[in-house]
Structure formats: C-alpha cells, structure tokens
Amino acid sequence: MKMGGKARFLLAFLFSGLTLAGAAHAATCGNDTSGFERWKVAFAQEAQARGVGPRALNALAGTTYAHKTIAADRGQKSFKLSLKEFMQKRGSAAIVSQGKKHKAQRAALFDRIERKYGVPAGPLIAIWGMETGFGRFMGDQNIISAVATLAYDCRRSEFFTGHLYAALELIDRGILSPQDRGAAHGEIGQTQFLPGSVLKYGVDEDGDGKIDLIHSVADALASTANFLRAHGWRPGAGYQMGEPNFAAIQGWNAASVYQQAIALMGRDIDGGR
Asked: Where is the Transglycosylase SLT domain (predicted)?
C-alpha cells in the first residue's frame, strides 16, 4: 500500500515514539544475575538518549555482576552493634592515635580547609580513618560494576540508578576511570564518596586542575568538608549529639552508631575541643 508523505511522517513519528517508550521501560530490575546483561543493553539505550557519551557507554558494557557487592549490601551487621562494640570493632582508639599524628603532619592543610569550609580537622580525620584507614584500603571492587549491579538490583534500584548516571558522567569527564576500584557499594576514594556526591561536592583542593578523591588527600578532605558544609555545618558550633553540627554528620551516614563514633573520635582528635 502506498502512502503519502504526511502519512509516512506520522507512521515514522509513532514508531519512534513507541521505540522510545519501550526503551524507557526496558531496564527492568532483577534480584539475580539472570537478567543483568539484558538490563545493561536496555539501560545503555536510555543512557545514550540522555546524552551519555561513548567512553562511559563502553565502560557500562564492560561491567560484570558484582556478587560481593550484593553480599555486602545484604549483610551490614556492624551497624547493629552497640556504640561501644562498634567503636571497638572499627578500632577507634587507633584512629584517634593515628589521627592526631595526621593532624600535626598536615596542619597547614587542615587550617586552610577550616578557613574555607568552617569544618575543623577532628571529624574530617575521623571520617578518613573510619572509611579507609587513612587511605590504606579504599576497596577492591570495580566501581562502575558495583554501582551498575546495585542500579539493576531491585532492593534500591532507584537510589543507585542516580549514582550510576553520575558515575557515567564522571567517566565521560575523565574524573573516574573505568578500571578504578572502590568499596562494595561503589564508594570512591580516601573518604568514600558515592558518585553523585563527587559530582555535587568534589573540589580540586590541591590545584592540579582535576578532582581526584582517590590519589589526592587534599581533594578528598576538602570535598568531605564541602559535603558537611552543604549539609548545614556551622563554623565554630559543636558537633556532638544535641549540638548544631551533629546533623551534618548525620547527613554523611545514616547509621546512628557511625554518627556517634565520628563525633566522639573527632572530639578526641581535636583535643576535647
């Protein structure tokens, strides 16, 4: 059957609309490995439609289902401990002892960060020590695979889909490499930022022209201070439970024992300040 130009245009328009609508709903979550590869193809179509570039799309294509990430996501038992048990398990005494040395060794950096962001050294060092042992272990999971797995997994798909788009943007911008490794949930660098937080709060503190939370201690600590400031940190105010800046620490991590531990270790590192 022959059609006129107008009819052909309308048919093409309807077909493209159906195709796009199908792609928009094609990336369906799952709870095991069986649908991961199909999900990746569908998600890549959506990502490309949103302007994600070839570098990031290639990185997404190379991801694998992260079994260790799923196991970690299902088994966060340490947050169910008492505060005393949690601090002992995480080695709070060692963090405080080593943290005081880091504070003295990097005094100029911490002074500069406090002038810029209003956040003192103590809580920043406590977070740094708690998250990665002062950069000694930043994780062994491929970051993009971990975040893609959690975006696919039905448990928190919506939350991690946003972080996956952020990770893809970081790759396109050259801030993150497809080979970079981090923690189980795709946390990045010395203080373990999720990809979306790198985009929002990451800063180039060392002045080398790039945001590098993995290799630059200055960038990581200043970015952490920037995060806390954005979550309501008030210069000079207290940060223990019941004090104004404790809410900013709550913004960093949702677990009550973690929040209290950071506040107590930070106080001890700051010398009871």
From this structure: 36-240
Contact 186, 150 (CB under 8 A): yes
**179 CB contacts (<8 Å, ≥6 apart)?**
142
Q: What is the pLDDT of residues 20-33, one digit of tens each?
A: 334 444 579 999 99
Q: State which fold the 77-138+205-269 domain adopts.
A: Lysozyme (1.10.530)
Domains of the chain by residue range = 77-138+205-269
Contacts of residue 157, Cβ cutoff 8 Å, sequence gap at least 6: 29, 150, 151
149 vs 39: CA distance, rounded Å: 10
Burial state string for 2-31 with b = 16 or more CB within 10 A and e = fewer than 16: eeeeeeeeeeeeeeeeeeeeebeeebebee
Single pTM value for the model: 0.86
Whole-angstrom CA distances from 186 to 102, 120, 121, 158 are 26, 27, 26, 15
Instruction: Express each pLDDT in 86-103 by its tens digit.
Output: 999 999 999 999 999 999
